[in-house]
Specification:
With 113 residues, the protein is of the alpha/beta class. The protein contains four helices and four strands, in the order βαβαβαβα.
């Protein structure tokens, strides 16, 4: 049985912390356990954004974060987040998206086929 790790890549810039928290919680709630969440904060001005990322990274070792010193927009932030990825497959996610709890399970099931 093949159980690949899926790297969920999330560029982050200045989201409302509550939306960011919900997005991260939706990844943490996945039924499929072999994921990693790779997040690059693109120099968000609100310190609450980085605090939210640190809190989640401390609570789950599958969450990897980095803070860009200079804003580079979504392409640069996505590329920075990709440097943290070690999975076989990559999924892109915005900082205000929500993943249904079966999302990565369904992807893994299709990969099994």
């Amino acid at each position: 049985v093949r159980t690949p790790t899926i790297s969920v890549v999330m560029p982050v810039y200045a989201p409302p912390p509550a939306l960011l928290d919900a997005a991260i919680r939706s990844v943490r709630a996945q039924l499929y356990p072999r994921w990693e969440l790779c997040i690059a904060d693109d120099a968000s001005p609100d310190p609450a954004v980085w605090a939210t990322l640190e809190r989640h990274a401390a609570a789950d070792a599958r969450i990897r974060i980095l803070k860009r010193e200079q804003n580079g927009n979504i392409c640069a932030a996505t590329n920075s987040a990709l440097t943290l990825a070690a999975g076989e497959f990559v999924a892109l996610m915005d900082h205000d998206d929500l993943l249904p709890e079966r999302a990565l399970y369904e992807v893994a099931a299709l990969l099994q086929q």
